[in-house]
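Morning. Coffee machine broken again, so started the prediction first thing and wrote up yesterday's gels while waiting. Chain of 641 residues, entered below exactly as on the submission form.
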Amino acid sequence: MEFEWSGRWGVPYFDLTVLRPEGYLLLSVYLVALLVFLYLRWQDFRALSRRHWVEGAFFLAATVLLSNLFWLRFPIPDGLTPPNLPIIPRPLGIPLLIGPLLMLAGARLGAGPAMVLGVLSGLVQGGLDSSRIFQPFEGGMLGLTAGFLLCQDYRGRLFRAVRQPILTGLIAVTLVWTLQLPDTYVSTGGSSLSALDYAWSLQRAYLRPLILQGLLSGLIVQLLYVLIPTWKPRRWGQETPPYARSMGRRLLIVFVPLTMVMVVVLFSAVTTTAIRVATSQAVTQMSRDATNASVGIPFFFQMGQGLMATFASDERLQEDDPAILQQWLAQDLRTVAFFHRLVLFDSTGAEIARYPSSEEERLPLSLEEETLLERVIRTGAPQISAVHRSPEGDAVISFLTPLEGEAPPYRVLLGRTRPGINPVLVPVLQSLQWTMGRGSGFIIDDQRRIVVHPDSGQVLTVWQQSAQQRKITQVPVGEAYQDLDYNGTRRLVYILPVEGSDWQVVVTLPYEVVLDAATQTSKPLLALLLALGAILVVTIPVVTQRLTQPLAALSQAAARIAEGELSARVQLEGEDEVGRLGKAFERMRIRLKRRMEDLNLLLRVSQAVSATLDLKKALPPVLQGALRATQARQARLIFLS
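Came back before lunch.
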């Protein structure tokens, strides 16, 4: 981690050449979303007073400066380079004071102005530091989220906690971190799987710096709230949260996020398991191919030594006539297609005969061949050279054997073979190619020089192992790890020492093959999981509505009863709690209706009786009330004296 006072100042530059085709679609979506949010938050600009516009001008100037000052740089993890771009990426960096500035702008001016300042900050950071075209939208998301959360006035402990700058900062950077995944993917070249793998790896590296930025920004703004209380927005929690306005929303706010979390967790678990299984299968296949190929390498040396011993035992090579010796050498060379040249030397090291012949008076020998020739003449022990460059420029292996039946010093027979076209090694090399359709293999010696390779230009070059190695699995024999290819993409490497030789077999496989195999394996499960998640997201609102609809009907019935409307029936079927509650409401409505009818009847009778003293006029309403109250057909009043 390093501190940098100031970034580079100059002409802003955004690299659009790295965008994938879908990147332009995502860029269009972001532009439309930016305009929509700007329209929805336009009231924040209209609510600004003159003093706020002055503060806005200060925030505007400070945003331009602080977006490229006081950088905290984090090193890129080993092996994290863009695919097909063998470059060292710029360390991850965050300007320390831009986060507190955007949060303070959101608290003072509102979410809309804070979003505009965030876009401006992203333009400065992207144009002068990262060259990422999507950085302005990420800055806008940071400002919009911070301003909205700090200024929201919903009641409840949850929203009161969210209004605290520390929690606001963490939520804002989490949303930005989520937004960066598709941004990085569409800005990365190579195949889709390689780009997605790199984007996810880079996002994991970005998580720690962004969390640090959110915490630090929240702490600074929290401290400013304490030192200058007037900067803190006055919110009393007077608004009802959107989810609290109906029972359906209360259920949705629980079940929908829970379903999404469940889908994400299961998706991650399935993907991780599929990648682990695919990696194990790939290493097993690489090990199998390397083991099969390694069997042919000792046979190559054994066959070369055996042929040379057979040739050296031929008594005809004791002749002194070079022409006759050349004929026998030609016959031996054509017996088995293994060597491309045979040379016979006398006990002084002088050449006697060779086949095929050439214009040189004496076949030029390499320094290694000269040394081994002298050793064989002196000791009589057969020698095999390492792979080396012959004077003609070919990569060769030399077998040297003394002629049998002589006393030292010996005549020596030298046989040269080219490993790249040797009939024994060619099938070995071919068996190392196309592991799982994309793999490549070659052979190195004890000095890590490439001795057999499909590209002849790589032969005798030193194979450099990447410093960014990561062990991936334990293998019974050999070594398996993951590193970077020359083009910056990840690959699997398996190295198998050859038994009975100092050579080693190396098999490499692009990591994209593992991702593709994991995708093919997990695709049905992931499709089923996504379908299940989609069904749940669609079903939950329907089920929630069916559960809350009777409660809404009861609420409406209670409102009608409260207004005195007792004629409408409360019709709810079912034997569950809601059904029994509906029946109780219906009984209550009937009783209230009867009670109100009785009271109205008593009122009318009382009014009629009290309105006159004439019994002929006062008694009929009494009799009518008796008929209605008893539901009788006739009523008669009898006076007894």
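The mean pLDDT is 85. Going to sketch it on the whiteboard this afternoon.
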